[in-house]
Amino acid sequence: MKMMENFRYGVPMIIPSEKLLRELIKSKYSFCSRKIFKIPNGVRKYIEFYNDEFRDLFIYFDNFTEIPDIIKNTDFKALREKEIEFIKKYEKKAIKMWEEVLDIQTKKESIISDKKPLCNNKIFY
Question: Are 69 and 62 within 8 A, CB to CB?
């Protein structure tokens, strides 16, 4: 859910590449579902940050030393716009799929369309 909220409000996300994630899991960090790494394409299928559908909405890094250059050289405004545009289409797609599953018709007025997060704490947006 948080990933989708970040898209909705245009929050750029810089995350470890799949390669670095695998290295971190092997060397230092635990991961709740290690079996995912043994399944062919398991990371891309089951971890949304690496799913092909969302891949262009993240900034990936292979080494922590890359982060300052990424921050310096990334067009964050363009990335925000891309995320917001993507999520508008994705939300419509998700609603349509739930309508099919539940065999209902969603009323337009029941769909949330806030421009800012519902939380009024400015730290979060």
Answer: no
Residue 71 CA to residue 18 CA, distance in Å, equals: 19
The answer to whether the predicted template modeling score (pTM) of the entire model surpasses 0.85 is: no
Alpha helix (H) residue ranges in the chain: 2-8, 18-27, 42-46, 67-73, 76-102
Q: Where are the domains of the chain?
A: 2-124
Q: What is the DSSP letter of 43?
A: H
pLDDT tens sequence across 79-110: 999 999 999 999 889 888 988 898 888 877 66
Distance, CA of 56 to chain centre: 10
Q: Which residues are CB-neighbours of 87 under 8 A, at least 6 positions away?
A: 4, 7, 8
Which residue reads 């470890």 in tokens? 16
Separation of alpha carbons 66 and 68, rounded Å: 6
Find where tokens 């289409």 sit: 89
Distance CA 69, CA 74 (A): 8
Question: In which region does residue 51 sit, left (phi positive, over 0), alpha (psi from -120 to 50) or beta (all else)?
Answer: beta
